[in-house]
Design a protein that fits this description.
Layout lengths: L2 H4 L7 E2 L6 E2 L3 E3 L4 H14 L3 E4 L14 E4 L6 E5 L4 E5 L4 H10 L2 E2 L11 H6 L16 E7 L5 E5 L4 H7 L8 E8 L1 E2 L2 E10 H6 L1 H7 L2 E6 L5 E10 L8 H25 L4 H5 L8 E6 H5 L7 E9 L3 H15 L7 E6 L14 E9 L5 H12 L4 E2 L9 H4 L6 H11 L8 H7 L5
Parallel strand pairs: 3-5, 4-5
Antiparallel strand pairs: 1-2, 6-7, 7-11, 8-12, 9-10, 9-11, 13-15, 13-16, 14-15, 14-18, 17-19, 17-20, 18-19
Helix pairs in contact: 11-12
The protein binds flavin-adenine dinucleotide.
The site of flavin-adenine dinucleotide (FAD) has 32 residues, from strand 4, helix 4 and strand 11.
């Protein structure tokens, strides 16, 4: 069947979750099989169009934008194989993490670690090195043990440690630059529960004990609340205790009143009258202590109903306290009112060429503003601080770097560029964002 016949073409503009990126693809297609992915790439080549896949559109950058063919993976979401003995599943690239988590749980499996939300597609999350927190745990891309990649000439490459190893290395965090990831095989772990303790702690105490906190807790993170001396901390330990979910009433209060709707009101009030923010921020630490046990993915992730814009940097983990203190000083000196907490996490090193955690224990600092709030001064100020630690920006979050400023921060930059030049010599999968952060394809 021809690509054109597989699904109706839609001429529409496309926008991301944050509503800060808009593009007008020549066509949007929704394939449902690998054969259709191949046909679409061949058709685009014949028409001289560029191609971009899109997962859940949860990147804040224009990484998924194109004026060519946009391949929406929303219908390409099945689990194809389950190797029970190895604890591995092979999935179609567009499967959302929440669907995957449910399917894995039904099979007695889970993802080893997750970020804050479960809305992303597997391929979108891994192409940008999406991560959670935990010094002993690597990012999602590192959980990939095999993938199939549709390349610019329409051929399908089987990639793993033992097959097309250089492509496998590069394509696990491929920024969508190497081709369309068709299927992904993930190494999973037996399903597990997490014991969560969430409580406000003075930020000075957190920073003084940070080494111990990240070493003794499986998954530790905190949010510093600007204009206060408070950090909202989250400690998650793997446990055999029976589930003891958050009381529903409390869950409602937290999610709707604070994390989402109430917080949204706070942000809107803050945008309307920034001088209110320091006073409003004082409400945040008065949330008290939460202690509960639940299925891992339900503890790792939560809904995000307040839309925001974000920048996040990976730096050497040991630099976190100093770097955060510099961000705190910047916020004080800038005179800008920041309504969104600053998030701090840690992740184990890996060896993937474009992973933000490549070769070092990594600490992440993420800054946010409520959608629609000017962020240039804040984000460039934070970026300058992160630059001094050789910071690596999250590929799916806002930043101002270019290939020239990034290359020296990735020891295996040239390995990635060699694979890119070989697989996509004409830049079929390029877009203006990739031109900026990777440069044009070079031979
Ligand atoms: C509310 C929110 C919370 C977040 N929390 C976290 C977090 O906790 N940790 C973290 O690290 N990040 C986090 N992120 C960032 C997010 O995980 C990444 O931006 C991720 O890339 C989004 O996944 P997606 O499916 O929406 O991908 P998209 O944004 O749709 O695409 C991302 C990139 O992947 C490419 N791509 C997608 N599928 C394919 C494919 N099959 N083949 C080739 N290329 C493909 C796209 O072309 C694009 O380049 C968060 C984002 C939001 C909005």
């Amino acid at each position: 069947m021809s690509a054109a016949a597989t699904t109706a073409a839609t001429r529409a503009s496309w926008t991301n979750w944050g509503r800060n990126q808009v593009c007008a693809p020549a066509e949007i297609r929704r394939p449902a099989t690998e054969g259709q992915l191949v046909d679409l790439v061949k058709q685009a080549a014949a028409n001289g169009q560029r191609v971009k896949a899109v997962g859940a559109g949860h990147s804040f950058t224009s990484i998924a934008c194109t004026d060519g063919l946009l391949v929406d993976l929303g219908r390409y979401t099945r689990i194809l194989e389950h190797d029970a003995a190895a604890g591995r599943v092979t999935v179609e690239a567009g499967i959302p993490l929440h669907q995957l988590s449910d399917d894995l749980d039904a099979r007695g499996l889970a993802l080893e670690n997750m970020g804050d939300i479960d809305q992303q597609s597997v391929s979108g999350a891994t192409q940008t090195a999406t991560h959670g927190t935990g010094l002993r745990f690597r990012n999602l891309s590192s959980q990939i043990v095999g993938l199939r990649l549709v390349t610019a000439d329409g051929s399908v490459l089987e990639c793993s440690e033992s097959e097309n190893n250089d492509v496998f290395d590069a394509a696990r965090v491929g920024l969508g630059a190497l081709g369309l990831v068709s299927t992904v095989t993930l190494q999973c772990v037996p399903a597990f529960r997490l014991h969560a303790v969430e409580e406000p702690v003075p930020v000075e105490d957190v920073l003084a004990d940070l080494d111990e906190l990240v070493s003794t807790n499986d998954h530790y993170e905190f949010y510093w609340v600007p204009h206060t001396r408070w950090a909202l901390t989250k400690r998650n330990q793997r446990t055999d205790e029976p589930a003891r979910p958050r009381p529903r009433a409390r869950e409602w209060v937290d999610d709707m009143a604070l994390n989402n709707y109430g917080f949204g009101l706070l942000c809107r009030a803050g945008r309307w009258r920034p001088s209110l923010i320091p006073r409003l921020a004082k409400i945040i630490p008065s949330t008290g202590r939460l202690d509960y046990v639940d299925r891992s993915d339900r503890v790792f992730t939560s809904p995000r109903k307040v839309r925001f814009w974000e920048m996040e940097y990976g730096i050497p983990r040991q630099a976190l306290p100093e770097a955060l203190n510099r961000v705190r000083k910047l916020v004080d000196e800038m005179g800008m009112r920041i309504s969104f907490p600053v998030e701090v996490r840690v992740v184990a090193p890996d060896d993937l060429p474009l992973s933000t955690a490549h070769g070092r224990e990594t600490g992440y600092i993420a800054v946010h503003v409520y959608r629609g709030t000017p962020y240039d001064t804040y984000f460039t100020g934070v970026e300058r601080i992160m630059d001094s630690y050789g910071g690596r920006p999250h590929w799916g979050k806002l930043h101002f770097q270019r290939a020239e400023t990034l290359a020296s921060r990735y020891p295996r930059w040239d390995d990635f560029q060699r694979v890119r030049a070989r697989l996509d010599p004409e830049g079929r999968f390029a877009n203006p964002y990739l031109d900026r952060v990777l440069g044009p394809v070079t031979g």
